[in-house]
Amino acid sequence: MSAASFGSGRHLAGGVLRVFLSEALVIPTGFVITIYLARRLGPEGFGLFTLTALLVSWIELCITSLFSRTTIKFVSDAKDWKPVGTAVLRLDLALSISAAVLLWIFSRPLSQLLHEPSLAFYLQVFSLDIPIFSLSRAHRDILVGKGEFGKRALGSVGYWLSRMVLIIGFVELGLSVPGAILGSIGASLVELAIGRLFVQPSFFGPAAPLRQFLGYSLPLFFSALVFPLYRRLDLFMLKMLGATIQMAGVYGVGQRMSAISGIFVTSFSPLLVSTLARTFREDDPAKAKEMGHNALRVVIGLLPFVAIVGGAAPEIVGWIFGPAFSPAGRLLSLLVFGTLAVNLISVTTAILTAAGHPRWTLVLTGPLVPLAVVSHFYVIPRFGALGAAFVTTSLAVFGAFLSVFLVKFLCQIPTPRATFLRASLASIAAYSFAHFWPTPGPFVLVKLGVIGLLVLFPLLFLEGLKGGELALLRDLFGWPESREEIVEED
Q: Least C-beta-crowded within 10 Å: which of 118, 159, 195, 386?
């Protein structure tokens, strides 16, 4: 491995580690918020908040995803990032304000569609968060494009900590569901303030030409519409097809718990776009392929740890949330695998974006929503919430396999077949062990830790630790290279 490759890899790995640690705050804060709201509001109130938050977050993610990876790539490529930043802020502000107004106007029809009249007021209040959130994420993307990963991580720290404090504080004041919404809006303001502290793109300065920017963004825009919608479609279809608000609350618990497996990849994908874009710009395709190949290995290597959560899901949910939410355990045991599959798709689309193939992201993600809608209409009336979870997971797994082959075809990045085989065998053992080893109450944490160590040992120290993983560990911990080596392909 060359010195330049080592430097780029170490910069990426160090950035991933810092951002991952900041995003990992969603585990304690998300646990606290979810447990607190579920117990404080009950299945009905928690269901209303979950429906509202999912719909608003889909709109926000569509807007931010439209410009996010394009912003990172263009800032990474530009000698002067400020015109790009100005263009992004103007586009983000115009689109987010328009979306907030439209949500306000259509809040009542949406609440009627979901058979919950009280949802309209909550959507109107939460619509205020859309422009604030969009601007805060624009600043985050500019920081990532500039390679300032540590400053980007501080924004996440401020967001997750303030979100927990503000939500609990407002709800304790007696504001119930509106209090949780106001706490979320306040957290977006905190992240925006931190972003402006480190980078101040102008709203009124000279802007980059929009034609090239939009030409790259539009294919990603349609993909951005599809991807977040797919990840939230099951709950909306479940409610639209007649589920009670209590069942929506139960399903929401399963969704939120499954999202934990995506924290690392959420941290990883934007940084991967930034670093790969710089690598392609430096005209070093071999180094870019190595980096992309190792990224696929890392995500696939998470499969056994997801399997542990899947096997112990009923015990985890029963201990944390109590008997009222016990059906969410079976849902979590399915959804957690779907979340990892979606995250693998996220990494592959990041590779395609950085390599200059944004249109293929739509080809990959576009069919997911129509296939899911048709499947949900057929499956949910027969199998209910468990059927919705099965559709979401199975389609995501299919999309993940397709995405890996697409990256191989377009970018000539080898498919990590041996890594997948090792991870699959370890996952079967981990799931079985977690499922058939009964543990009462908090002892489930002991079980998770023990099985995690048992899985980690053979993956790292028997057959799983090869050239790519060794390079990753060197980059993360700053170990010196013992010899010249390149990634060992499966």
A: 118
Q: Angle formed by the axes of helices 443-461 and 303-321, to 10°?
A: 180
Plot region of 147 (φ>0 → left; ψ -120 to 50 → alpha; else → beta): left
H helices then E strands: how many in the chain?
19, 0
Per-residue pLDDT, averaged over 337-352, amounts to: 84
Q: For 139-145, what is the mean pLDDT?
A: 85
Tokens of 81: 């990032």
486 domain residue, yes or no: no
Q: Domain containing 163: what range?
A: 3-477
Torsion angle of alpha carbons 263, 265, 270, 272, nearest 10°? Answer: 150
DSSP state of 173: I
Interval 47-60: pLDDT, tens: 899 899 988 988 89
Tokens read off for 158: 């401020």
**Tens digits of per-residue pLDDT, 149-186?**
778 788 888 999 999 999 999 999 999 999 999 999 99
Q: Is residue 483 part of a domain?
A: no
Q: Is the dihedral of CA 474, 477, 478, 479 positive or negative?
A: negative
Given a contact cutoff of 8 angstroms between Cβ atoms, the answer to whether 468 and 487 are in contact is yes
Residue 482 falls inside a structural domain: no
Count the domains in the chain. Answer: 1
Give the global pTM. Answer: 0.68
Buried b (16+ CB within 10 A) or exposed e, 389-398: bbbbbbbbbe
Position 487 in a domain: no
